[in-house]
Amino acid sequence: MATYYARSTGGNWNSSSSWSTVSSASSTNAGTFPGAADTTILDSGSGNITINVLSASLTLNCTGYIGTLRFQANFQLGGNLTLGSGMTITADLTTRSLRLSTATITSNGIHLPITITVNTSPTITLADDFDCLNTAANFFGTFVSSSTTTRYFKVRGNFTINGACASNATNTVIFQYTGTGTYTSGGSSMNAPFEINTSGSITFAATNHNFSNSSLGYSWSFKYTLGTVISTGAIIGVSGSTAAYKIDSNLLVFETIYPSLNVELLSTLRATTIGFQYNTSGSHTLSGNFGFICDYLEFNKSGTFGQHRNLTLTAGNTYTINKLLSNFPIPNTVLPAPTIQSSHASNKVSVVLNGGSNLIRCNITRVDASGGVLINIVGIITNCSNVGTSTQNVLI
Fold it and tell me: Does 243 reside within a domain?
């Protein structure tokens, strides 16, 4: 392992005349160039360097560098990356890539106009916010802040999850979508806070996407702030554990979203379809100070025969179903009816049904787990059981 300094003359990465093992001001070249086991330094005395062929280094330190690092080929880094606040990074193609292994990244405010990929299950530590342009990136592994200060990993292009991508509650990294492109997960989990905050647009690929809640202590796990979102054909799954997954979707309207287990709503959840049947049986809870508005509320669409789903809604909120509340029975069978119940031992929850005779094949219970709390249903229900008694506020 050796230490290489980019000389004042600069040049191509694979040219021995571009490097010195003494200092950037040395008049003697190194006779070779940095490789995968070496430390590379670009400092205040270094000239412009062009990565002209596939290249590698153990670490790359650009502290004080004011020159230009050009990507005309891909680069592999085995360890830490430190960028210089006065440097410039360019690329001849947006698909040029920097592959990271376990590393600490200090960006000093420099944007990388290239694709960032990561090696198998690394731990990436951010010393500050990191900003990159991704076109076909594969994110997986653990991403953490170097301190308890929350860091942002900002992505301006396509965003691909290939395996679970995680953060944690103490040293949190938020993945913030800031550009225009497509989010593709292939069913893999984003176990870190994810925010859409862009003047552009993001398209969720027409497949399953799962956002989970390994960052249990953070104030939200999925957040929409700004941008055009296209989710045609996409199924957004939100999974949790014993603690509530937190979603702040603001005015975003999902096409299809499947809340699983415990979900805390930090704003009104809006979707064409909300389903409670995504690979999970048993009890589901929507907590928080907000309700939902949807056209279709579905139970058991893809559930196993015999499974029973309970949905607990938070008293004081309003939950609006515009077109259809459905239990999707399998022909010639009887699925256990879903139960909708209040979260409070004495306060009712308001479910507004606007679909008229289209509200079919459901069973709304009048009691919660305490055994006596009535659900306040406002609307018209057709062909349902266990509703419409004189003690329940139902219009039929």
Answer: no
Question: Which among 95, 122, 149 is the end of a domain?
Answer: 122
Residue-wise pLDDT for 302-361, tens only, equals 545 455 567 888 888 888 888 777 766 555 555 555 667 788 777 777 887 776 544 544
The verdict on pTM exceeding 0.85 is yes
Asked whether residue 44 is domain-assigned, the answer is yes
DSSP letter (8 states) at residue 219:
S
Number of domains in the chain: 2
* Domain extent for 95: 1-122
In a domain, 149, yes or no: no
| Conformational region of residue 261, where left means phi above 0, alpha means psi within -120 to 50, and beta covers everything else | left
CA 82 – CA 108 distance, rounded (Å): 8
CA distances from 230 to 155, 196, 200, 253, 267 (A): 17, 12, 11, 9, 20
What are residue 223's DSSP bridge partners? 195, 248
Residue 285 and residue 245: Cα distance in Å, rounded? 10
